[in-house]
Write a structure and sequence with these properties.
The chain contains 19 helices and two strands. It is mainly α. Helix 4 packs across helix 17, helix 6 crosses helix 16 and helix 9 runs antiparallel to helix 15.
């Protein structure tokens, strides 16, 4: 059977204010083509190490040592599989997930999906506000309220970066991710975990999650790993690479995008594992098994390590995590708005709207609950994301399994089985997590 390839736009979508697609020379060496394709996966990996993941990893490490490291590994592998589907969809169709949902579903269904996607963007930005505000509070000694106010001015950074080119944005994200990685590498050197125990923690163990409490944390790690907005974002930004329209060129693009995705998410896996290992070595091994808040971890690192250097690095990494996630959340918001509504607004306006809506619950939470609001609001943001995830994951799997839409890039049977199994596990885990939180 022959398939007709969907027509790809001559100028793939590039987020407004971050224009500058990158041409890939098909005659170049494999390494040079790979370098040209590297970048979208890095932006996606930001969502896998945002402040929303920190609290869960810190509590898991402090309470259960290295026992839940295998959950971080399995959740990251699931994320790699899902994000590879996203890159394939974008390359095969020349459209992003939001655009396809608008075209293939009824107006009511598409609008409902848009509302849920926007809620997920706000929930994600809430986590970034809280993470950055907490970092300012820890590093500068300002109140959490003042820290939240400071985060409102990151719109100025967006304005400064507009029209700088997509490659420039990717370079900035690389610098921020490198900052996070270097900080945790130095901290692990200072903490000196017992590495044989760390390696054993990556071995799957049902006994490690046999009780309700560790199972709750394990599901929290899973539910916070695959971010809904990343699915929309990845299908769009992979199109910033310009490649040939013929089948061979697209197949090469799919392969290069897969390498970029897996490599980038492997870095995110190392960071998330480092957070848990740090908490396990610094707190669990020293008897501090009740450390569940990010600020508690920050203050306890000083006496345990014997100096303020480790805690300062911890705060810098937290700030880099929150700020980098802010950029990708803004781009994802634009992708979702344009895809579902066919509406394009300037990047700074989109940032202002999203950040304004996220500041409201952040201010109210801190005002009503004080410093204790951070942990509770971070958990709330993850619950909201969990609610929305199946609504983005379902159309992704359906569309990548549609022969008429995907042509020769359609999911094969093993991929279909894996994708639907992940959908069932993630949906069931999120439903259990939400049920536990509500009841």
């Amino acid at each position: 059977m022959k398939f007709s390839l969907p027509k790809i736009a001559t100028a793939p979508f590039c987020p407004p204010e971050v224009a500058g697609s990158i041409a890939v020379d098909p005659s170049a060496s494999f390494f040079k083509r790979l370098l040209k394709f590297a970048g979208p996966g890095l932006l996606i990996s930001i969502g896998y190490m945002d402040p929303g993941n920190w609290a869960t990893a810190i509590e898991a490490g402090s309470r259960y040592g290295y026992n839940l490291l295998f959950v971080v590994l399995l959740a990251s592998l699931a994320g790699m599989a899902v994000q590879c589907l996203c890159s394939r969809l974008g390359i095969a169709t020349g459209k992003d997930l939001a655009q396809l949902c608008r075209e293939r579903y009824s107006k009511r269904s598409a609008r409902t999906q848009w509302v849920l996607a926007e809620i997920s963007i706000i929930a994600t930005d809430l986590a970034e506000v809280l993470g950055c505000a907490l970092a300012f509070h820890l590093l500068l000694g300002v109140s959490l309220t003042t820290g939240i106010v400071i985060t409102a001015f990151d719109t100025l950074l967006i304005l400064a970066l507009q029209n700088r080119g997509f490659r420039r944005l990717e370079a900035i994200m690389l610098a921020l991710v490198a900052t996070i990685g270097v900080c945790f590498f130095i901290e692990l050197v200072l903490i000196k975990p017992y590495w044989p125990d760390v390696l054993r923690g990556f071995t799957p163990s049902l006994s490690a999650i046999s009780d309700a409490a560790p199972l709750y944390l394990a599901i929290g790690i899973l539910g916070a790993t695959v971010m809904p907005h990343n699915l929309y974002l990845h299908t769009s930004i992979v199109q910033t690479r310009l490649f040939g329209k013929d089948l061979a060129s697209r197949q090469d693009a799919v392969k290069l995008a897969r390498i970029d995705t897996i490599g980038s998410l492997a870095l995110a896996l190392l960071v998330n594992a480092a957070i848990l290992v740090l908490a396990a070595a610094a707190f669990h091994q020293t008897g501090h098994t009740e450390v569940v808040e990010i600020q508690d971890a920050y203050h306890l690192l000083d006496p345990l390590v014997g100096g303020a250097f480790a805690s300062i690095l911890f705060g810098i990494a937290l700030l880099a995590s929150g700020q980098s996630s802010t950029f990708t959340g803004t781009i994802a918001g634009q992708v979702i708005m344009e895809g579902y509504l066919n509406l394009r607004i300037p990047c700074w306006q989109r940032r202002l709207i999203t950040r304004g809506l996220a500041l409201i619950p952040a201010f109210l939470g801190v005002w009503l609950m004080g410093d204790d609001a951070i942990g509770k609001l971070l958990i709330l943001s993850q619950v909201v994301l969990s609610l929305q995830l199946p609504f983005a994951l379902y159309p992704l799997i359906r569309m990548t399994g549609d022969k008429q839409l995907m042509g020769p890039f359609v999911n094969r049977l093993p991929t279909k089985l894996l994708a639907w199994t992940l959908f069932a596990v993630i949906s069931g885990a999120n439903a259990w997590l939400i049920g536990q939180w509500l009841f």
